[in-house]
Amino acid sequence: MSIHLPTFSDQQNTSQPNILLVKLSSLGDVLHNLPIVWDLRSRLPNARIDWVVEEAYVHLLEPLRSQPGFRGIDRIIPFGLRRWKHHLLKRESWQEFFAFKSALQEVTYDYVIETQGLIKSALVCALAKKAPGVTVAGIGNATQFSGYEPQARMFYTQSVQVPEQCHAVDRSRWVMSSALDWPLIGREEAPQFYPAEFVSAISAPQVAGLEKPYVLFFHSTARAAKRWPNEDWIALGNALTRIGYQVVLPWGSESERLVSQALCQQIPGSFVPERFSIEEAFSVISSAALTIGVDTGLTHLAAVLGKPSIEIYCDSPLWKTEGYWSNQIINLGDMQHSPSVQDVLTASLKLLAQ
To answer: Superfamily assignment of 202-353 in CATH?
Structure first.
């Protein structure tokens, strides 16, 4: 694949540019942005790559942090906006903001790649310290079923038009490829999310109550219409329990915990764990026989780890986040078209038999 880098001044070394990625949140969005790290690193091995991310998702990026013998992300810059905005009158919030700004401006960037299309992320681009002739690339148009704030374009030097129906991984690659003046990197070049050595080294979970073999049910999501019916989870859970699997029902909020407990009461031998962190999620998912979940971040984490997983789509488009990079992933359903219990059970048995 040919590479066409932009022309810079004589003082700039285009083989070693400083690149800032801005993708703040949320869990699934950060995960689907990971492939552009490897797209960049494979073509510009000596580049400096930094990433600004909401502090809650730093742990998703830590496996990619550069270290001796491994080059991934050189610097992860935590951003605490979600917390700061709830404490705007506190001096500590402003002290932390100015510390963030100071850290961001420690490096002068040749490229700033913003793949979220929101004002908050565009403002981060504005705060970054930039080289003469810098490219600040961001999304130039709304895409279906994704948040977008057109005012963000004011902070870009390059607004990238992307297809209205665009997978989350592809959308990031559109912006990155345009920023670097590269041919579009397509699906034929399968995305890499985490280093293989990281995935293979994930240790067994230390969560009390888990019994192998177990199947994770990620039944909850932020929007109620994206949920699969409780009675379907119960029917599926009973079918898997009968063949020897423990059903595990994680949760992330009090309302989700109540749903998990209600499901648990009707699925013999099932288990509701304590709320676990993102760090714990890596090991819990990695050691599961199978993960089944609706269109939500932890379901996508199972898919990007390459673990056996079923993604259930009930009221969100399949094309936007489907896992297409592994035969360990099965996608079922689509917009306003929930899969049946039999569909999910058949897919479950197929993956469990592999």
So the answer is: Glycogen Phosphorylase B; (3.40.50.2000)
